[in-house]
Amino acid sequence: MASVLILMGSQSDWPTMRNAASMLEDLGVSWEARVVSAHRTPDLLEASMREAEQGDVRVVIAGAGGAAHLPGMLAAFTHLPVFGVPVQSRTLKGLDSLLSIVQMPKGVAVGTLAIGEAGAANAGLLAAQVIGTTEASVADAVKQFRAQQRDKVMQNSNLEL
């Protein structure tokens, strides 16, 4: 099993969640993605967390829209860090998802990222940073990524406006 498990409530969440996968790939972190619904497949959700804990998974990234119960339910079944990505919804533009994920009860932690693609990419980056605390090659990749980000800004810092 991979270092990071990316779970989403439905296949339609993949266009958002693939941004987490891309970031992880860029940073040299192995990942696996699956569809697990908190409401339609709760038994699969629990089994996925048991399997993750018994395997090499170090971080779980969960994307969900609407009621967005998936990240919280996953966190209830594991000691692994869970990062929640609110997937943009049609009705409330992802605000419903954000509020659902961020309002976890005391004692069940879910790290919540921004709504949509940026949140998914940052979830991948944050997962890599966690893994980088014990894997030097990943820490080096994160540092290199940060340096590239800085260099891009510096290249444009002397523009005449």
Automatic annotation (TrEMBL):
Catalytic activity: 5-carboxyamino-1-(5-phospho-D-ribosyl)imidazole + H(+) = 5-amino-1-(5-phospho-D-ribosyl)imidazole-4-carboxylate
SUPFAM superfamilies, per the entry: N5-CAIR mutase (phosphoribosylaminoimidazole carboxylase, PurE)
Broadest EC class assigned to this enzyme: isomerase
Residue numbers binding substrate: 10, 13, 40
Domain PurE: 2-153
Keywords: Isomerase, Purine biosynthesis
Biological or metabolic pathway of the protein: Purine metabolism; IMP biosynthesis via de novo pathway; 5-amino-1-(5-phospho-D-ribosyl)imidazole-4-carboxylate from 5-amino-1-(5-phospho-D-ribosyl)imidazole (N5-CAIR route): step 2/2
The enzyme's E.C. designation: 5.4.99.18
Job of this protein: Catalyzes the conversion of N5-carboxyaminoimidazole ribonucleotide (N5-CAIR) to 4-carboxy-5-aminoimidazole ribonucleotide (CAIR).
Assigned protein family: Belongs to the AIR carboxylase family. Class I subfamily.
NCBIfam families linked: purE
Name of the molecule in the record: N5-carboxyaminoimidazole ribonucleotide mutase
UniProt organism field: Aliidiomarina maris
